[in-house]
């Protein structure tokens, strides 16, 4: 596990089913005028979980690495109305598919009662830092993703 992404309440753990888990708080600023977590805040939760668990191009000292893993696609199902609360939420993340130059990340955002508020998938592509073109994962990069296996998330069709 790479560690916290900086907020005092964040914890990184391994959940049941081998998923990585970022435990975090809903911030007051995450809630929009409709009284629920805004869609942009959910993307930040997913981003925080990825950065906490994987080398996303910045090391623990904040220095750029040779890794340039970029998002090329998000698919998101909003399944419930998550509101501001003092209790933490969990962002579970796993890698259902690891390709030669790309990886799919799957996520669920849930509370302590295991109510799922969001289910999502992101496709990430590994780029060469110098050329900006896709490059194959190193064995260590591949092993980091393969440490969090799981099934594809069940998303609703359009």
TrEMBL record:
The keyword Thylakoid does not apply. Keywords: Hydrolase. Its EC number is 3.1.2.-. It is an enzyme of class 3 (hydrolase). Gene3D superfamilies: Hotdog Thioesterase. Pfam families: 4HBT_2. GO terms for molecular function: hydrolase activity. It comes from the Bacteria. InterPro entries: 4-hydroxybenzoyl-CoA_TE, HotDog_dom_sf. This is Acyl-CoA thioesterase. The lineage of its organism: Bacteria, Bacillati, Actinomycetota, Actinomycetes, Micrococcales.
